[in-house]
Design brief:
With about 525 residues, the chain is an alpha/beta fold. The chain is built from ten helices and 18 strands. Strands 4, 9, 10, 11, 12, 13, 16 and 17 form an eight-stranded antiparallel sheet that branches. Strands 1, 2, 5, 6, 7, 8 and 18 form a seven-stranded mixed sheet that branches. A three-stranded mixed sheet has the order 3-15-14.
Length: about 525
């Protein structure tokens, strides 16, 4: 059986970085992906609603990315949260919104500064060079806005132009002392990395067939293949990572989705990048005499500290634009961003904050029609008049990382491949509720200063995680409360690394993907150096 230098499991943001960097570093790499490879010609992003059975609703434009054989998640004793478990080559990079925000220096030190969560085992200064490098690799549009709460870099593509509603919002926020900035997205606003610029179709999260948005298949895998060191195996569902007599990882057992046969890949180093819940599931299912509680889980931490983002949304229809002749506002979903601002207005009775993404909902749908009473010609005319004034807020707020929120596996319930399914247990805490109430009140206040009609969508309690779940195989300074060191390396298993969102010690209000990419780049450098020294 062939012995690879590195086996990477999962092809999303983390797995793509690892595949490129380690292949370019001379390692013989195999990448296992549970899903199929989808040709961009299969994307439904440019289909008009009338061309689709459900008119573009019910997730039908993303159905290619979510095959029916994904194992169900069982939610027990849970508040209203959901985890995103995609199964396709490229993972969530295939249909993400591409917002790329750096964590601030204080986000790595919330234990010291705010008395909540644990401090990360690395600082912003240590990760900053990797933020710089990854932004250059993937191509990020935007600006350095010189905000302490949202650090910037040196290399940005031109920002996206603001639309009418965003200019109106900017004027209002300026009066309230709240910043509105150009969004930072891994999206080409000019040709970059042999990829074309965005053509502003407004369907970023349905798959970008033009390759203007960064994805693993478009940006990372071609570079990995060019080395001659890279092997890709799709439709390979990892069952467990097997250990040798010394407790080190020696092979991964996987099931071929097409043949249903079990196979094995051997390697010297394993990098797990399956996403927060699936990575925990894999390690917890990897039991052996050397690791009876799961691979690398001698302290019982794996699966615990599940967290991510809470939030809520709001549709606003600006009176200033009501009734104007329809015009194309599709753009690249959100063009602007409201960075965290609550710290500007004095001390609060909660830790953390929130940011607001603007207009990432499609202009194609008249959402107000769901919220308004009425029927017939007058109702339709009212909906049409309001539509040009569409403005959308989507908020993301920090959730604390707590050990009593966790993922386990149930050996008595298996998926169609015989693999125990994940079980999620999660409750929002006191700080989470306090932050959510402040977030909601603030968004309502902003809306009240905008002339128009507002439709808040908050519910009676927070929701989460907005595809931003993190933390189940966390890194840390304390060996008792963490599974990984600062290089995403397992404390128990020297040749095992985990670099997706599950490695986060704590979160902030910012989207996690850029930090996942930077941490993966840093871990890849560490692996290359350890291999050079003969220590891995």
């Amino acid at each position: 059986m062939k012995l690879y230098d590195v086996c990477i499991i999962g092809s999303g943001a983390a797995g793509g970085v690892m595949a490129k960097e380690l292949s370019e570093g001379g390692a013989k790499v195999i990448l296992l992906e549970a899903g199929q490879e989808v040709d961009p010609s299969q994307f439904l992003s440019h289909k008009w609603p009338y061309q689709l059975p459900y008119r573009g609703l019910r997730g039908e434009k993303q159905a290619l990315f979510y095959p029916k054989d994904i194992a169900p998640v069982r939610y027990e004793h849970c508040d209203p949260v959901g985890v995103d478990r995609i199964r396709v080559l490229g993972g969530r990079t295939l249909h993400w919104n591409a917002v790329t925000l750096r964590y601030a220096a204080r986000d790595f030190r919330q234990g010291l500064l705010d008395g909540v969560d644990e401090d990360w085992p690395l600082s912003y200064a240590e990760l900053e060079p990797y933020y710089d490098r990854i932004e250059q690799i993937i191509g990020v549009c935007g600006n350095d806005d010189h905000l302490e709460i949202l650090p910037g870099g040196k290399h940005y593509l031109p920002p996206l132009p603001w639309r009418c509603s965003e200019h109106i919002l900017g004027r209002t926020l300026k009066k309230l002392g709240i910043p509105l900035i150009d969004v930072r997205k891994a999206l080409n606003t000019r040709p970059y990395d042999n990829r074309p610029p965005c053509h502003y179709c407004g369907h970023c999260m349905d798959g970008c067939d033009a390759a203007a948005i960064f994805t693993t298949p478009d940006c990372m895998l071609p570079k990995a293949r060019a080395t001659g060191n890279f092997t890709l195996r799709t439709n390979a569902i990892a069952r467990e990572i097997r250990a040798d007599r010394e407790g080190q990882a020696r092979a991964v057992s996987f099931v071929d989705r097409l043949t249903k046969k079990e196979e094995e890949v051997r390697a010297r180093i394993f990098v797990v990048c399956c996403a927060t819940v699936e990575s925990a599931r894999l390690l917890l299912n990897s039991r052996s005499p050397q690791h009876p509680a799961g691979l690398g889980n001698s302290n019982g931490v794996i699966g615990r500290y599940l967290h991510g983002h809470l939030g809520g949304g709001m549709h606003i229809y600006l009176a200033e634009l009501e009734g104007v002749k329809p015009f194309n506002q599709d753009g690249a979903t959100d063009h602007t961003y409201i960075p965290r601002y609550n710290q500007l207005f004095g001390k609060a009775d909660y830790a953390g904050g929130w940011g607001i993404q603007v207009n990432f909902a499609s202009y194609m749908f008249p959402y107000q029609a769901h919220d308004m009473a009425g029927y017939g010609p007058a109702f339709k005319e009212r909906v049409r008049k309001m539509q040009p004034g569409f403005l959308f807020f989507g908020s993301f707020g920090k959730i604390l990382a707590r050990p009593d929120n966790y993922v386990t596996v149930d050996p008595n319930q298996v998926d169609e491949y015989g693999i125990p399914v994940p079980v999620v247990r999660f409750r929002f805490g006191r700080n989470d509720y306090a932050l959510w109430r402040a977030l909601k009140q603030s968004m309502l206040e902003i809306a009240s200063n905008l002339k128009g009609t507002s439709f808040p969508h908050f519910g009676n309690s927070p929701g989460g995680f907005g595809s931003h779940e993190v933390g189940t195989i966390r890194m840390g300074k304390n060996p008792k409360t963490s599974a990984l060191n600062s290089f995403c390396q397992s404390r128990d298993v020297k040749n095992l690394f985990v670099t997706d969102g599950s490695c986060f010690t704590a979160s902030s209000e910012k989207n996690p993907t850029l930090t996942i990419l930077a941490l993966s780049l840093r871990a890849a450098d560490y692996i290359k150096e350890q291999r050079r020294r003969g220590e891995l």
